[in-house]
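Risk register update: the risk of archive-format incompatibility is retired. Evidence:
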Amino acid sequence: APPHPPPLPPPRHAPRARVLLVSSGEIYGGSETPDPIGEDAPLAPRSPYARTKAAADRLGAVFAEGGLDVVRARPWNHTGPGQSDTYVASDFARQLAEMVLGLRAPVLRVGNLDAVRDFLDVADVIDAYLRLLDPGVPCGAYNVASGVPMPVAKLLERLIECAGLRPAIEVDPVRHRPDRASVGEAARLRSATGWAPRIPLEDTLARLYEAW
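Archived output:
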């Protein structure tokens, strides 16, 4: 077995500062069923992005053991006006807006619509981060999630309703993502801070579409 790493030196510059480390729900790797995943689930990252987040998460835990006040947030998918179109909800919204504006033919390119994810409004996620910065909240890992399974196909349906269109759907293999479900359980966050999602996803998607 590799030798145990030497203990970390005590923090010197701001030893009482709370550190908010934003990890990701992707570090769990998803599951075969849409059952919500809790913080005690093993980490099984499946992409380079998820692996880097898992590494940072573990490093934050090590520094917490060494005395630093580190709280690790593990957010699931979140969206809102201004989000890059590299993310699924914003990508769909942009394509639909361009169709309405006459900038694109009524053909919507999609990836895997069977995938199941957990979506939040970005403002609810920010609210969770602010609550976690309260020094009265114990340090540790906290999922930030709605706990509601959302098939990507349903997400697309709601955005299509916003646009009032019926475009043709064309699958683009480049956009394909795994079928594995990824839904989070945020009971620990609710218990520690009283947090709960407040913004209905329908409102989030309508604002996202209007922004595009």
